[in-house]
Amino acid sequence: MFEKFVYQYCKAYCKSTYHNVHVSHEPMNWCSENLGPLMPRMQPDILIYSDDKALIIDTKFYERIFVSRTNTSKKTYRSSHLYQIFTYIMHYSYNNPHLNTSGMLLYAGTGLELKSEYRLQTHKVCNKSLDVEILDLSVDIPKIKEQLNLMIQRYFS
User: Fold this and answer.
1) Nearest residue to 118 via CA among 135, 133, 106
2) How many angstroms separate the Cα of 37 from the Cα of each of 29, 34, 40, 41, 113?
3) pLDDT tens-digit series, residues 85-100
4) Prediction pTM value
5) Of 66, 86, 88, which is closest to residue 76 (Cα–Cα)?
6) d(CA 55, CA 38)
């Protein structure tokens, strides 16, 4: 449900705001020409792209966004989520070298994770931008729209 909401919102917002930005959720190609029959399809939740940029968004809705290591209070991202978005970024970049490709893990947030230091984390990995953002769903609809608008504007304005 969260994925569909964000996808439909991004599609409507980009269509009404930008003439050259498109939104899709089509499968993407692996960076291989000889895939075996057992290889799964790679399909991002949301792909926003223009003539020179692409943003791949993977939406997540979990009770707990962060995990803690045993015997320590250090919080970390879920490694499987990072591996997934990183894989999308690298394969899409390989197949579309003319685009400046970035990726984002977008979590639905309503709890303690909404502290300002967690709301947006930007990382450079293999010279690609990989952001982790938390969309605050505990606010009213205009504030949710504002958060999504700003998220898209950071990449395409």
Assistant:
1) 133
2) 14, 10, 8, 10, 40
3) 999 999 999 999 999 9
4) 0.87
5) 66
6) 27
